[in-house]
């Protein structure tokens, strides 16, 4: 590491990289310092089961990266990025063997519903249509919107709990369940205020863009970001766990891609005690239990729609999904969890040896929970895909502790950098005019503990870099 950097970024997750790229593009000299031996944070692909089977250790399906106003402007295809679009963004199988699909085509999606065709269009069409005007307000900190009327129309729906939203708009339980599949990505009880927003945003992304993923593994998204960053002259130092600001060379700004609990442990930040107290009060959300499988064949879903979907959500009644998300927040284990499954190898043959397959899944569990949920997750899949267990060649599991060992930002297995409830959605880590700044004018936060929160979209990093530019390099 040389001595003359304008900005040092601590942590090489998608947000750290986004911040570094934005600053480097403005002509500043930057370096990323990363504690791990591999860059990427919770976006990494490795052969963790059998040789030749590539598994995404953390994030796997990246519609937010594809749709990100920051990432989509970068020339990542030139640096090797290839997107794969599953025929169906996501599907949800039901107990009777039927399934609903969320197709990219909104009309085709709505046409599946017996009683809810009109109300599905009424709910989603305005958001899908106005997405380009809404995205800047939804993917950043609270500020005066450019399109207040459209945002207000969205907000009236998005502010509601997912439970209230589906009960108001839909008559069929199956339509409600399909929407819950997307809404439950919030990792919140579905009767919580604003839990509906996640369903609206993720479903709108499916209709506007699809739910794509990078060819060869989510890790390739990081490889291409890094290649672009280095082509701009950006530097990376691996295997350096930053514990003290004084161990880093002098710079005009330090941007941390870490969560409040970790920031509090960094020495020499000189934060006043009131700010420290507020960071200490920051709330973490439920954790996850994660499984990767090497399979002899694709998951044998009973329903064809599930065989054509990149993502399959599981949960066999409205009540079952609601109870699952409540249990994860009430420190209870649950034998019938809501499960998210991703199946890349059906669409991406580079992931496995010939004719073999992978699958990736997780369920929400209480923060810090150490129970092995393998049986519960496999039982849910088996219900919609009898014979699934016979296809398993090998598997790798991570409970909340293993996840935090894999990446120290995953506090207690929380994959979103903190609870995404109404009190922390736009005002994370604390309510302030600039959530990316801290009382130390040289220290900034760019992780998913800042708005707009969890997901691989780089928008926390972009906004943090903007805060650095505005306050230091005006
Ligand atoms: C199992 C799982 C599944 C997920 N699925 C999806 C998905 O399908 N789609 C999606 O969009 N998102 C998904 N996510 C969420 C997504 O991965 C995160 O929101 C995203 O990685 C956040 O990026 P970040 O840059 O804020 O932090 P991170 O990716 O967590 O990166 C933080 C980096 O900081 C480094 N670091 C920490 N402390 C220090 C230190 N003291 N010194 C130096 N370096 C340090 C870490 O090693 C890490 O590299 C998933 C996450 C997990 C874990």
From TrEMBL:
Gene3D superfamilies membership: FAD/NAD(P)-binding domain
Domain Amine oxidase: 16-247
SUPFAM superfamilies according to UniProt: FAD/NAD(P)-binding domain
GO molecular function term, any single one: oxidoreductase activity
Functional note: Probable oxidoreductase that may play a role as regulator of mitochondrial function.
Summary of subunit composition and partner proteins: Interacts with COX5B; this interaction may contribute to localize PYROXD2 to the inner face of the inner mitochondrial membrane.
Name used for this protein in its record: Pyridine nucleotide-disulfide oxidoreductase domain-containing protein 2
Biological source species: Salegentibacter echinorum
């Amino acid at each position: 590491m040389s001595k003359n950097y304008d900005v040092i970024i601590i942590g090489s997750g998608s947000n750290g990289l986004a911040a570094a790229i934005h600053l480097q593009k403005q002509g500043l000299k930057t370096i990323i310092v990363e504690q791990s031996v591999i860059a990427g944070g919770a976006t990494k692909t490795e052969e963790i089961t059998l040789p030749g089977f590539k598994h995404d250790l953390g994030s796997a399906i990246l519609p937010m990266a594809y749709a990100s106003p920051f990432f989509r402007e970068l020339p990542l295809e030139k640096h090797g990025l290839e997107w794969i679009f599953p025929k169906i963004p996501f599907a949800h199988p039901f107990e009777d063997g039927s399934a609903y699909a969320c197709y990219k085509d909104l009309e085709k999606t709505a046409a599946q519903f017996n009683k809810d065709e009109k109300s599905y269009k009424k709910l989603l069409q305005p958001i899908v249509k106005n997405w380009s005007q809404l995205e800047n307000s939804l993917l950043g900190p609270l500020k005066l919107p450019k399109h207040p009327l459209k945002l207000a129309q969205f907000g009236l729906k998005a502010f509601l709990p997912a439970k209230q939203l589906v009960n108001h708009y839909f008559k069929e339980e199956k339509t409600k369940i399909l929407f819950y599949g997307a809404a439950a990505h919030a990792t919140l009880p579905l009767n919580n205020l604003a839990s509906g927003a996640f369903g609206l945003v993720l479903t709108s992304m499916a209709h506007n863009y699809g739910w794509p993923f990078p060819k060869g593994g989510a890790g390739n998204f990081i490889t291409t970001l890094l290649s672009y960053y280095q082509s701009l002259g950006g530097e990376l130092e691996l295997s350096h766990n930053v514990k003290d600001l004084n161990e880093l060379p002098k710079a005009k700004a330090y941007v941390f891609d870490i969560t409040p609990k970790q920031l509090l442990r960094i020495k020499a930040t000189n934060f006043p005690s009131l700010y420290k107290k507020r960071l200490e009060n920051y709330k973490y959300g439920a954790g996850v239990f994660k499984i990767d499988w090497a399979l002899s064949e694709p998951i044998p879903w009973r329903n064809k729609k599930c065989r054509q979907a990149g993502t399959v959500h599981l949960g066999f009644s409205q009540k079952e999904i609601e109870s699952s998300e409540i249990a994860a927040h009430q420190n209870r284990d649950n034998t019938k969890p809501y499960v998210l499954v991703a199946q890349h190898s059906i669409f991406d043959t580079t992931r496995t040896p010939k004719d073999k397959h992978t699958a990736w899944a997780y369920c929400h569990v209480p923060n810090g929970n150490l129970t092995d949920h393998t049986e519960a997750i496999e039982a849910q899949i088996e219900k919609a895909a009898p014979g699934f267990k016979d296809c398993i060649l090998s598997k790798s599991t991570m409970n909340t502790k293993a996840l935090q060992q894999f990446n120290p930002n995953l506090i207690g297995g929380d994959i979103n950098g903190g609870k995404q409830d109404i009190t922390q959605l736009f005002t994370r880590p604390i309510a302030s005019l600039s959530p990316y700044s801290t009382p130390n004018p040289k220290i900034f936060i760019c992780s998913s503990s800042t708005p707009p929160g969890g997901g691989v979209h780089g928008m926390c990093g972009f906004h943090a870099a903007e805060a650095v530019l505005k306050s230091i390099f005006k």
